[in-house]
Amino acid sequence: MLGHRFSKFLPDDKSQDPFERLFGIFMQLLNYTSGDVHEAMNWLNELDREHKLTDDKYTMADFINDLKSKGYIKEDANDGNLSITPKTEQTIRKNALEEVFGKMKKAGQGNHRTRFMGNGDEMTSDHREYRFGDTADQISMTDSIRNAQINHGVSDFHIMEGDLEVHEKEFKTQTSTVLMIDISHSMILYGEDRITPAKKVAMALAELIRTRYPKDTLDVIVFGDEAWQIEVKDLPYLQVGPYHTNTVAGLELGMNILRRRKNPNKQIFMITDGKPSCIKEGANLYKNSFGLDRKIVNKCLNLASACRKLKIPITTFMVAEDEYLREFIREFSEANGGKAFYSSLKGLGEYVLEDFEKNRRKKI
User: Fold this and answer.
1) Contact of 218 with 114, CB cutoff 8 Å
2) What pLDDT, on the 0 to 100 scale, is given for residue 349?
3) Phi/psi at 54 (nearest 5 deg)?
4) What is the pTM of this model?
5) How far apart are CA 95 and CA 45, in angstroms?
6) DSSP strand E in the chain: where?
7) What is the pLDDT of residues 159-168, one digit of tens each?
8) Across the strands, what pairs with 286?
């Protein structure tokens, strides 16, 4: 008996549809160019010249025409400039979700199960006695009438509060999340692109909440010299600027947003690669890019403590390896009672998923 014989596997590069092959590369390039179609196409043409991505049967012009016909890009009627469409924005978020959270197990839509019983939407098979605050739809009429007959007899039938029996409901948590993204200049310093992985995580988290937890809320904040809120649809276009790092402004804005949310579970995720280096003093900025300025650090620690009092845990994802910066994050996390992860950019998404899922199951 000869058994199995193995030979070298030679993949057929032409087995994949030429549009799909170019489209995957194009989507990645859009992340790096912050949604700039013209620049992404220039990079794609360079790759084509170097690696022969197209041939006479399917050219780059054919690919651009397919992008237009499929609704991924549109051409301005006045100046002829190309731009991505909302369909492309959603595709980028879906791709980021698959890339960052691809190993995540599937679960039900829009709820976060816990081992606790309480107010929720789904009835369970468990019954218990009536308690003040239970809704009428929870009452099991058949069981309640049976209890009344047993307790009071059939001839003098009446139902008292002690006869009522209700269906238990599953407790399901809902969470309001603020995602803070550092867009200071250090996110692209020293030849390292740190903003692109940060954007991918933000887009993946946004798509995760939109599709899996529609009852939750997600607010995205960017912070540099100041902090401001952006829409989820603006994430592909996010760029760094010539900014310092005003962590205080980001935390203050995040706290103001979460104060308005009615969900009892609230949390802040902060992705940063550098130390806080400025704060607002009146109309001016107090800046210090050298070392850790205690005046700025103390402001951050005060806000971390304030978030702790409001039961808002802060999870910090630190992408820098300087020991003195890590020491600051440890001090910051201790003041807040939150968590800190010191990870490479490659593992950033996995850590976000792990801590996000844990927070969702925690009753705060």
Assistant:
1) no
2) 62
3) -120, 170
4) 0.70
5) 22
6) 73-75, 82-84, 112-117, 123-129, 165-173, 175-182, 217-223, 227-230, 265-272, 278-281, 284-287, 314-318, 339-342
7) 888 888 887 7
8) 279
